[in-house]
């Protein structure tokens, strides 16, 4: 179906999308499937005006879909830096299948909760969603392992085409994404809400993100944790290879430490009950 939008397969392969797709076809197809659901969720938010925590009930599933697309889409591109012989192994193929298969549980859980007007997270009273919340925590961790598995596979690829400083940055970004996301998700799951002080509503939250404007919000730290895998490599692209060629590990380490500093800052900012970028009002 994707190939049908191009004149032929050869033309498709020359495009950026084609190169992205063939790096890891299963991840790519899963990414496109989740992406294709986004317009449906947008239509649902227009037709269904029910609200939860002050915002449209379909907003949360929509945000999760966008986040999943970014996560899987990035892993798909990064797969091009894994040794092809590793990717051809049965164990790898099974792992990717299981990784994509976690969405069979996660997405219906999110959509189903919205459909019946219940919160998917912090729901400890609903007879079905309450036990599902704990189960989905385990499934989410399994889904997040894609970051650390790819970090290891990229790190051990001795035939990597990447400049050393950029490869180290990618590996560290994936490692940080996994470790900090799991830690933040665990803390969030142990709490009664992600708000710390302020109004327990997303109605007046930050544009697009919904983060609290008058109190702490741990979703900020969770966001930057998960998307370290995009932010750190993008920042590394601004590094001049000539300047860092002799110290690629140091460059990647310094960049990663600076990003970890940001993570600690937004985390403790939220824990102290202060909003992220509070000066925006």
Could you explain the architecture of this structure?
The radius of gyration is 20 Å and the shape is globular. It folds into two domains: 24-45 and 52-160; 162-281, no CATH class. The chain has 13 helices and four strands. The strands form two sheets. It has a two-stranded antiparallel ribbon. The N and C termini lie far apart (46 Å). With 281 residues, the protein is mainly α. Helix content is 66%, strand content 3%. The longest helix is centred in the middle third of the chain and has 27 residues, at 129-155.
Helix % is: 55-70%
Rounded radius of gyration (Å): 20 Å
Total helical elements: 13
The major β-sheet equals: 2 strands, antiparallel
Instruction: Kindly give the count of domains.
Output: 2
* Unreliably modeled segments: 1-7
Give a short summary of the structure.
The protein has helices at residues 9-14, 16-23, 25-47, 59-78, 84-87, 90-101, 103-115, 129-155, 164-190, 219-226, 228-236, 241-244, 248-271; strands at residues 51-52, 55-56, 195-196, 216-217. The chain has 281 residues and is mainly α.
């Amino acid at each position: 179906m994707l190939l049908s939008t191009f004149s032929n397969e050869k033309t498709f392969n020359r495009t950026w999308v084609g190169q992205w797709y063939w790096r890891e076809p299963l991840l790519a197809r899963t990414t496109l499937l989740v992406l294709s659901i986004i317009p449906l969720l947008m239509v649902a938010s227009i037709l269904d005006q029910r609200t939860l925590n002050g915002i449209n009930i379909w907003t949360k599933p929509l945000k999760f879909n966008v986040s999943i697309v970014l996560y899987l889409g990035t892993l798909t591109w990064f797969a091009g830096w894994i040794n092809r012989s590793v990717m051809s192994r049965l164990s790898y193929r099974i792992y990717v299948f299981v990784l994509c298969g976690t969405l069979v549980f996660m997405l219906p859980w999110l959509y189903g909760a919205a459909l019946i007007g219940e919160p998917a997270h912090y729901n400890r009273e609903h007879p079905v969603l309450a036990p599902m919340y704990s189960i989905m925590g385990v499934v989410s961790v399994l889904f997040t392992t894609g970051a650390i598995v790819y970090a290891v596979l990229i790190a051990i690829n001795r035939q990597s085409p990447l400049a050393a400083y950029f490869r180290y940055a990618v590996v560290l970004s994936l490692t940080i994404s996994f470790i900090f996301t799991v830690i933040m998700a665990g803390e969030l799951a142990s709490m009664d809400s992600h708000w710390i002080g302020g109004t327990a509503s997303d109605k007046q939250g930050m544009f697009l993100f919904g983060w609290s404007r008058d109190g702490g919000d741990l979703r900020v730290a969770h966001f930057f944790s998960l998307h370290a895998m995009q932010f750190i490599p993008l920042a590394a692209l601004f590094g001049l290879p000539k300047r860092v060629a002799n110290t690629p590990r140091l460059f990647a380490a310094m960049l990663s430490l600076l990003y970890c500093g940001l993570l600690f800052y937004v985390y403790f900012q939220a824990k102290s009950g202060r909003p992220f970028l509070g000066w925006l009002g």
